[in-house]
Specification:
Elements lengths: L22 H53 L9 E4 L6 E4 L10 H18 L6 H11 L2 H9 L9 H4 L4 E13 L4 E12 L5 E15 L7 H6 L4 E10 L45 H11 L6
Antiparallel strand pairs: 1-2, 3-4, 4-5, 5-6
Helix pairs in contact: 2-3
Pfam families: VirB8 (PF04335)
Organism: Parasutterella excrementihominis
Protein name: Bacterial virulence protein VirB8 domain-containing protein
């Protein structure tokens, strides 16, 4: 009392809070405890339910994986290995993958159109036939850009020694056989390999054969205001923008030309108009063996010798 802390004026005396001891307070605490237990129980139930769902999904995915693996193993005996045959040209060394008989390969329509116009252009420009040269000339004109068409036009000048009309005329012609067309649509270019044969119109036999490669650039310029004749030949406006030809060479650096039958082994090989072949009527095996009907008549009129069969 004498050494105690002196109380300040206005301070209230300290009192202890008494805990509720009545039945109402106990009931409130019980309700709070039950609510806490219910929340914890709900959380535990939710976690257990999530775990069960997770295991179910894992089991389902595992079963699906097993079924897929079983299906793959069951399909393995049905797998067929198709061999690819690569053909190498004996004279040029050009390799080409042969397509099995009956196998259909889907080709895009755009690629088919490119190959159609390219093959048409090569046949008309590189080939020659005295009967169709005028039509081929127009087609080359319609399918070429002016700078590409100019060299083709110059070769028909009368003073040009390489003029096809003067070089071949009615005696012979040039036939084109396309061996491959590779189109690169990303760069609008193509590489064409073809065989060029000079064929005699009298004997219908090749007198000269050579192998060539053409490198072509092309583009489409649709224009429907052109003439009807041009639209019929080139409705899509296909134009050759660059054109170059190179003769193929073998490993020795020589132009590839297969052996042409000589007159010694084939009497009709290399025969020209107004050229007479002397035939021995006593040789029954060789007499007239290789001569067509038109040549036989010419020989008979000129020599008086009738070839035997």
């Amino acid at each position: 009392m004498f050494f105690g802390k002196r109380k300040k004026a206005g301070d209230l005396p300290e009192t202890k809070r008494e805990q509720p001891t009545n039945s109402l307070g106990k009931r409130n605490m019980s309700e709070r405890a039950d609510a806490g237990f219910s929340f914890e129980s709900a959380r535990i139930c939710l976690l257990e339910k999530s775990a069960r769902n997770g295991w179910r999904c894992a089991g389902l995915f595992g079963l699906t994986t097993l079924l897929c693996v079983a299906a793959i193993f069951k399909m393995l005996p049905l797998k067929e290995r198709v061999p690819y045959i690569v053909e190498v040209e004996k004279t040029t060394g050009t390799a080409q993958v042969l397509q099995p008989v009956g196998e259909e390969r889907a080709v895009p329509h755009s690629e088919l159109m490119d190959k159609h116009f390219i093959s048409k252009y090569i046949r008309c420009r590189e080939g020659y036939d005295n009967r169709t040269v005028a039509g081929d000339f127009e087609i080359v004109k319609y399918l070429s850009m002016p700078d590409v068409f100019e060299p083709y036009l110059q070769q028909f000048k009368r003073k040009n020694p390489a003029n096809p009309d003067e070089k071949y005329g009615e005696k012979s012609g040039v036939r084109i056989e396309l061996t491959s067309i590779s189109v690169n649509q990303a760069t609008d270019s193509a590489t064409v390999r073809y065989i060029r044969r000079v064929v005699s119109n009298v004997t219908n036999r090749p007198v000269e054969t050579s192998y060539w490669i053409a490198t072509i650039g092309f583009e489409y310029f649709p224009d429907y205001k052109r003439s009807e004749k041009e639209l019929l030949e080139n409705p899509l406006g296909f134009k050759i923008t660059s054109f170059r030809t190179d003769q193929e060479f073998n490993s020795k650096g020589l132009a590839v030309q297969p052996n042409v039958p000589s007159p010694a082994t084939d009497p009709a090989a290399g025969l020209r108009p107004n050229q007479i072949i002397v035939i021995d009527p006593n040789n029954k095996e060789e007499t007239g063996k290789y001569l067509p009907e038109s040549i036989r008549e010419e020989v008979e009129k000129s020599t008086g010798i009738k070839p035997k069969e």
